[in-house]
C-alpha cells in the first residue's frame, strides 16, 4: 500500500529580489533577473522600473513516502525540512534548475584530482612514501576515495539517522557563522532545517540492518543496500566531528540536501570532496543518480555544480537534457523549454508524466527552444490560461483572468499567499485542469481524497467534487496543478 500524502494547501510567495538567497537582488545586469528576454526588453524600454521578484510555491508536508519524494524531485521540487517547494521559474530572479549527474557523466577536472590528493595526504600518514608510487592511467576517484579511507586510521565517516544532537548543532552554528555570516540560528531552527523530514518515523529511524549495510558501502563484496530515507553522514577526523552531509537516499539516487563543515578544516575542501564521495557512494549502493539540488547558471555559489557534468531538467516537460545541450540557452540566467515542434506556443500537458519515472529527451540536439513562443511577451500560454480560468470560474471554480498580462507586478497588488498565477512553468496548465473538469476526470478524487478542516477539527472524505464549496474546488485544482491527479486523489489535505 502506498502512503497517503499529507500536505497543506499550496502556498505562493512573492517577495522582493533583495530577499533572494542567491542573488540578493544584486546582479550587475538587470537582464539576468528575467527568465525570458522579451520581458526584459519590454520593461527596460518602458523604463517602468518593474523587475523580477523572488517567487516560490510549495506545501507544508506532514507525510510523504520516499518513493513519492523521489518522483517530486524529478518534477523540480526540493525540500527544506518538511517544506516542499519549487521556484516559479518565470517570475523568479534566478533560474533554479534541477541538476543530476552520475559517475559516468562527471568530467573529472584537475581541481577535483587535487582535492582528492589533498584529502589523501591529510588522512594517510604514510602518504609521502606512497606519493611516488601514484599510478598513471585514468583517475578513478571512486577507487581513490575507497582506498584512502580504507587505509586511514584518523578519518572515517558514519551514516546515521538524521536526528538532532548538541554536537551536530555546535558544528552547524560554527559553520553558519563563519562561512555564511549568519548569526540568526538556534537549536530549533537547525532541527527544523536539517533534521525534520516529511517521512514517517519508521523511515527516519531506519533499521540496524539498513545502517550496517550502508556503513559497509566500501566493501566490494556487498551489493545489497536497503536503506531509503534521510541520513546524516558524519565525518570524523582525529576523533572530532568535522563535517555532516545531510542527504536523502532515494530509490533512483542520492539527493544532497546540505553540507556543513568545520571552517578550521577549510584547506581540505570538504564541500568538493563530499560531492565526489556522494557520487561514488551513489554508484556503489546501486542508486543511479546523484541529485545536486538546484543549478543556477549565474550564481557563483551554485554554478560549481556544472563542473560535475550531468543533466538539467526541462521543467515544462519533466525531461532531462545534458547540461552541455542547453548551456547557450540558459546564458544570462534564461529559462528554456525544449520541443520537437519549433512552432509550439502552448504549454505541454503534464498529468501523464507524474506517474512515470523521470524521462530524458532522446535526441536533444534536434530540439528547439520554444520559450519565447510560450512564455515571452507575445507567448501563447497567457491567453490560453486566461480563457481556461474564465471557463473554470463559470463552473464555480474561482479562477479569474489576470488583469495585466505581465510577469512583473508593481508590488502594490498585495499578494494573497494562496493565489498561484494562471501561468507557472512546471505546473499543470490551467487548460489541462479545465479538460479534467469538462471530462469529469477530476471526479476521480471522489471517495478517495481526504480533507482535514482545521477550523472545525473535522476529517472527511471528498464524496462529490461538484458539490464542494468553490474554495475547496479551487484548492483541489491547485493541488492537481502541483502534484497531478493521481497524487491528489491519494492525499489528505489540511485546509
Ligand atoms: Zn535571485
What does it look like?
With 495 residues, the chain is of the alpha+beta class. Among the domains are: 110-287, no CATH class; 440-478, no CATH class. It contains 16 helices and 19 strands. Strands 7-8-9-10-11-6-12-13-15 form a 9-stranded mixed beta sheet. Strands 1, 2, 3, 4, 5, 17, 18 and 19 form an 8-stranded mixed beta sheet that branches. Strands 14-16 form a two-stranded antiparallel sheet. α3 runs parallel beside α5 and α14 (381-394) packs parallel to α15. The longest helix is centred in the last third of the chain and has 20 residues, at 470-489. Bound molecules: zinc ion. Zinc ion binds next to loops.
Largest sheet: 9 strands, mixed
**By helix and strand content, what is the structural category?**
alpha+beta
Give the C-alpha Rg.
24 Å
Counting copies of identical and different chains, the oligomeric state is: single chain
Q: What is the tally of beta strands? A: 19
Poorly predicted parts = none
Q: Can you tell me the overall shape?
A: globular
| Beta fraction | 15-25%
Mean pLDDT: 93
Bound molecules: zinc ion
Give the SSE map:
Elements: E1 5-8, E2 11-15, H1 37-46, E3 54-63, H2 66-73, E4 78-80, E5 83-87, E6 97-101, H3 110-123, H4 127-131, H5 141-151, E7 155-160, H6 166-180, H7 187-194, H8 201-205, H9 208-215, E8 229-237, E9 240-250, E10 253-261, H10 270-284, E11 289-295, E12 311-314, E13 319-322, H11 323-326, E14 338-339, H12 351-355, E15 359-360, E16 368-369, H13 371-375, H14 381-394, H15 430-438, E17 450-453, E18 458-461, H16 470-489, E19 491-494
Helix pairs in contact: 3-5, 3-10, 5-10, 14-15
Zinc ion binds near residues 93 and 94.
Amino acid at each position: 500500500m502506498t502512503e497517503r500524502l499529507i500536505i497543506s494547501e499550496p502556498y505562493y510567495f512573492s517577495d522582493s529580489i533583495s530577499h533572494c538567497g542567491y542573488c540578493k537582488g544584486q546582479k550587475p545586469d538587470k537582464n539576468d533577473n528575467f527568465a525570458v528576454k522579451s520581458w526584459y526588453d519590454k520593461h527596460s524600454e518602458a523604463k517602468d522600473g518593474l523587475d523580477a521578484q523572488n517567487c516560490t510555491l510549495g506545501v507544508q508536508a506532514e507525510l510523504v513516502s520516499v518513493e513519492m519524494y523521489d518522483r517530486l524531485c524529478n518534477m523540480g521540487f526540493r525540500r527544506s525540512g518538511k517544506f516542499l517547494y519549487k521556484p516559479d521559474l518565470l517570475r523568479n530572479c534566478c533560474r533554479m534548475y534541477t541538476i543530476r549527474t552520475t559517475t559516468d557523466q562527471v568530467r573529472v577536472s584537475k581541481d577535483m584530482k587535487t582535492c582528492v590528493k589533498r584529502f589523501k595526504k591529510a588522512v594517510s600518514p604514510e602518504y609521502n612514501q606512497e606519493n611516488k608510487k601514484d599510478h598513471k592511467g585514468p583517475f578513478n576517484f571512486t577507487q581513490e576515495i575507497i582506498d584512502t579511507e580504507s587505509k586511514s586510521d584518523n578519518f572515517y565517516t558514519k551514516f546515521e539517522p538524521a536526528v538532532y544532537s548538541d554536537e551536530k548543532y555546535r558544528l552547524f552554528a560554527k559553520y553558519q557563522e563563519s562561512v555564511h555570516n549568519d548569526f540568526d540560528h538556534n537549536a530549533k531552527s537547525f532541527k527544523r532545517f536539517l533534521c525534520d523530514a516529511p517521512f514517517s518515523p519508521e523511515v527516519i529511524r531506519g533499521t540496524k540492518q539498513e545502517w550496517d549495510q550502508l556503513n559497509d558501502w566500501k566493501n566490494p563484496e556487498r551489493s545489497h543496500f536497503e536503506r531509503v530515507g534521510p541520513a546524516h553522514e558524519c565525518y570524523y577526523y582525529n576523533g572530532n566531528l568535522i563535517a555532516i552531509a545531510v542527504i536523502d537516499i532515494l530509490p533512483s539516487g542520492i539527493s544532497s540536501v546540505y553540507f556543513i563543515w568545520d571552517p578550521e578544516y577549510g584547506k581540505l575542501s570538504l564541500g568538493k570532496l563530499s560531492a565526489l564521495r556522494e557520487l561514488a557512494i551513489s554508484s556503489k549502493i546501486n542508486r543511479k543518480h546523484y541529485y545536486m539540488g538546484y543549478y543556477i547558471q549565474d550564481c557563483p555559489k551554485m554554478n560549481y555544480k556544472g563542473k560535475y557534468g550531468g543533466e538539467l531538467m526541462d521543467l515544462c516537460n519533466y525531461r532531462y537534457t545534458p547540461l552541455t545541450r542547453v548551456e547557450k540557452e540558459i546564458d544570462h540566467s534564461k529559462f528554456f523549454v525544449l520541443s520537437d515542434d519549433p512552432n509550439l506556443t502552448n504549454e505541454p500537458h503534464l498529468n501523464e508524466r507524474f506517474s512515470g519515472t523521470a524521462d530524458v529527451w532522446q535526441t536533444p540536439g534536434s530540439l528547439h527552444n520554444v520559450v519565447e513562443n510560450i512564455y515571452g511577451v507575445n507567448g501563447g500560454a497567457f491567453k490560453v490560461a486566461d480563457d481556461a480560468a474564465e471557463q473554470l470560474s463559470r463552473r464555480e471554480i474561482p479562477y479569474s483572468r489576470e488583469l495585466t498580462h505581465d510577469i512583473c507586478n508593481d508590488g502594490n497588488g498585495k499578494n494573497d499567499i494562496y493565489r498561484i498565477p494562471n501561468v507557472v512553468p512546471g505546473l499543470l496548465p490551467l487548460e489541462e485542469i479545465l479538460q479534467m473538469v469538462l471530462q469529469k476526470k477530476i471526479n476521480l478524487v471522489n471517495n478517495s481524497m481526504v480533507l482535514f478542516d482545521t477550523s472545525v477539527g473535522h476529517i472527511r472524505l471528498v464524496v462529490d467534487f461538484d458539490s464542494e464549496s468553490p474554495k475547496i474546488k479551487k484548492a483541489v485544482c491547485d493541488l492537481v496543478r502541483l502534484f497531478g491527479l493521481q497524487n491528489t486523489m491519494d492525499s489528505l489535505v489540511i485546509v
